[in-house]
Write a structure and sequence with these properties.
The complex is a heterodimer of chains A (499) and B (159). With 499 residues, chain A is of the alpha+beta class. Chain A folds into two domains: 100 residues, NADH:ubiquinone oxidoreductase Nqo5 subunit (Beta Polymerase, domain 2); 289 residues, Orthogonal Bundle (Cytochrome-c3 Hydrogenase, chain B). In chain A, 41% of the residues lie in helices and 18% in strands. Chain A has 16 helices and 15 strands. Chain A has a five-stranded mixed sheet with strand order 1-2-5-4-3. A three-stranded antiparallel sheet of chain A has the order 8-9-10. A three-stranded antiparallel sheet of chain A has the order 13-14-15. In chain A, α7 packs antiparallel against α15. Chain A starts with a helix and ends with a helix. Chain B has one domain: 3-Layer(aba) Sandwich (Rossmann fold). Helices cover 36% and strands 18% of the residues of chain B. Chain B contains five helices and seven strands. Chain B is globular. In chain B, 51% of the residues are buried. Classes of the chains: A alpha+beta (499), B alpha/beta (159). Chains A and B meet through α4, α7 and α8 of A and β1, α2 and α3 of B.
């Protein structure tokens, strides 16, 4: 069998900073993806533009990235989903947005397009007429006659995502889970196209509220890579502080939510109080509780307020003083009996779907984009932990560990904070780039192509693309009454991947 | 000892209590049931609503509670731009809500579509699908702003 390197050696390439993007024939496209699977590389993203389909593969051991493309000849390209299950949702999305058909795809049901839009295939050069409103909820697997169907969503429990889960339930046990998303599709890619990076950044910041800083930073890094612009050192340090504050705040929110669902009011109240303390400090320091629109292409929108560092450090002190008691509560019988063994995600499954973040690291898949792909972190050297149990208890402990580590990183970044400007002017140039960041739910990747300073094509990869297929598998065999707890523990969000 | 951040604007809290006693008691008895409807939100508004529901603001001490079903709700609290894919669900939720069917649009997206106005996949604000009684701006609005908005709703319905 041929290797990935052998195929890439002979292929022509285009510049996609900081890497190359190799152009493959259809047969090479399949051969490369098969070789990538054999070499334990992970599919990070699959997307398209009007002419080509692109894929991003990651080697989690060697920490290298491969970007490849194949033309969508006569509107079709060879499907990867028959041997790469993680590609299935992307292929459905590519068909709904660009109209390219994946030949031989494992699943050809619509994904984002429910037949209600003003037009179909909105991102193609010639969008079609609106589709037929259909019932997207037809599963593609056999269900025996005694199965009860439990449909959940799209308007779900209080303060929740808009998504639909179709569960087939046998007695108290879930037999199959089929996720249907796309309800919150807002046409983000079409809105970003043709805009300047600074304006388009507002859409990147609103892909997912719990990862607004991470998406903003990944998008900004893609712009800066494409333009070959260097961000001032002060802005780099402030971005690290913001990303880690976001990580702590959202981890606290998830700890509180899981605590609430696992009948631990004390975990819920302590964690939500600490989260509120921290977001109020972010408001003082950066002018926004969630730090939305604070990281922009070329740097950060505004310097940290004079009293900002002090406010944040005080909030960090509050959190640090409570962490060990929150950890002890999770070790106690009441909470651990509720969380141990619930929503177990296997390490092989996480690795094959490329599930990073807390869920991956709690299942033995040791990938964190901060190591290897984000040079900004160099001097701060983030430490990562890996657990192997893969259940809700392991994920809670993983979150507590990551909060502790992020507290250290925030302190180090604010302490280091060099003097100087916080933005750099952006040139009106053309180019292509990829940027990434480690969000609270996993690695975020943004690809874009600029044409004289305007966005010609863009695709953001939210961790949800890997988390939802994993969730479907984790729910199989789980108790139906645990569904809210499992969803909260996996931190499943729809908006980022609904685009 | 847990840290105790200052509660938001005590005057707002006090007047919420007063407003509730008069308005809600007259029309709704002693409580106000809110059903949250996500019509395409980025989940930023949900983070802030969870904070409002959480221990510091503790809405339930005023008798304001979040309920599971529109059948049990007095108020629908809508977040996100109204996406075309969720328009039917939004209308169904309102139809299922008993009178007075108050609808509150929370956040710039639900107010008028926000940055998503003009998209092929978005109708606009919540008002494009159902009549809206109150707009609470912000991206996302802070828990204090949402609380002040709910107070306005009660005061406006005093008579």
């Amino acid at each position: 069998m041929t290797t990935v390197d052998a195929i890439l050696r002979d292929a022509p390439a285009e510049i996609c900073r900081p890497w190359l993007r190799h152009i493959l024939r259809h047969d090479e496209w399949i051969a490369l993806a098969q070789a990538a699977v054999a070499e334990a590389r992970v599919l990070v993203a699959l997307w398209a533009d009007t002419a080509k389909v692109h894929a991003l593969f990651l080697d989690p051991a060697g920490l290298t990235i491969i970007a490849v493309s194949t033309p969508a000849e006569a509107g079709s390209y060879p499907a990867l989903s028959p041997f790469l299950p993680g590609a299935a949702l992307y292929e459905r999305m590519i068909h709904d947005l660009w109209g390219h058909q994946a030949t031989g795809a494992a699943d050809v049901r619509p994904w984002l397009d429910h037949g209600h839009w003003l037009l179909s295939q909105p991102m193609s050069t010639r969008p079609g007429p609106p589709g037929q409103p259909g019932q997207p909820g037809v599963p593609n697997y056999f269900e025996p006659g005694d199965t009860m169907i439990l449909p959940l969503g799209p308007i779900w429990g209080p303060l929740d995502e808009a998504a639909h889960l179709r569960l087939s339930v046998a007695g108290p046990t879930i037999r199959h889970a089929d996720a249907l998303l796309g309800f919150t599709h807002k046409g983000t890619l079409a809105l970003m196209r043709g805009k300047s990076p600074r304006i388009a950044a507002r859409f990147a910041a609103r892909l997912s509220g719990d990862a607004t800083v991470a998406h903003s930073v990944a998008f900004s890094r893609a712009v800066e890579a494409a333009m070959e612009v260097e961000v001032p050192a002060r802005a780099v340090a402030l971005r690290i502080a913001m990303m880690e504050i976001e990580r702590v705040a959202v981890h606290l929110d998830t700890l509180a939510e899981v605590g609430r669902l696992a009948d631990s009011p004390i975990v819920r109240s302590r964690c939500s109080l600490l989260r509120e303390t921290l977001v109020r400090a972010s408001d003082i320091a950066f002018g926004h509780r969630l730090m939305m629109d604070c990281a922009i292409p070329g740097g950060v929108a505004a310097d940290i307020a004079e009293s900002g560092s002090e406010a944040i450090l005080r909030a960090l002190g509050d959190i640090a003083s409570q962490l060990s008691s929150i950890r002890r509560l999770h070790d106690g019988a009441a909470l651990s009996s509720r969380l141990v063994g619930v929503g177990r995600a296997g390490g092989a499954l996480a690795a094959s779907l490329g599930v990073g973040g807390v869920v991956g690291r709690a299942s033995g898949y040791a990938f964190d984009a901060r190591i290897g792909f984000v040079s900004d972190y160099g001097q701060f050297a983030p430490r990562i932990a890996v657990r192997h149990d893969g259940d809700a208890a392991a994920r809670q402990h993983q979150r507590i560990f990551e909060i502790e580590e992020s507290l250290r990183l925030i302190g180090a970044a604010l302490d280091y904070l060099p003097d100087g400007p916080v933005t750099v002017a952006l040139p009106q140039v053309s180019g292509e780039g990829i940027g990434c960041a480690e969000s609270v739910r996993g690695d975020v990747w943004h690809w874009l192509r600029l044409d004289h300073g305007q966005i010609a094509a863009v695709f953001p990869r939210d961790p949800g693309w890997a988390l939802w297929p994993l969730a479907e598998r984790v729910l199989e065999g789980a108790a139906a009454e645990d569904i809210d707890l499992i969803r909260a523990s996996l931190a499943l969000n729809a908006s980022g991947m609904d685009l | 000892m847990a840290p105790r951040p200052d509660p938001i604007d005590p005057a707002a809290v006090e007047s919420l209590r007063a407003g509730l006693e008069e308005a809600a008691q007259a029309r709704l008895g002693r409580s106000l049931a809110i059903r949250h409807v996500n019509t395409g939100s980025c989940n930023g508004c949900e983070l802030e609503l969870r904070a409002l529901h959480g221990v510091l603001y503790e809405l339930e001490r005023f008798g304001i509670k979040f309920v599971e079903s529109p059948l049990h709700a007095d108020v629908l609290l809508v977040t996100g731009p109204l996406t075309r894919n969720l328009a039917a669900a939004m209308v169904q939720a309102r139809d299922a809500t008993p009178d007075p069917k108050w609808v509150v649009a929370v956040g710039d997206c639900a107010v008028d579509g926000g940055v998503y106005r003009g998209s092929y996949a978005v109708l606009g604000g919540a008002g494009m699908g159902v009549p809206v009684d109150l707009l609470i701006r912000g991206c996302p609005p802070s828990p204090g702003t949402i609380l002040a908005g709910l107070r306005t709703l009660l005061e406006a319905n005093l008579n």
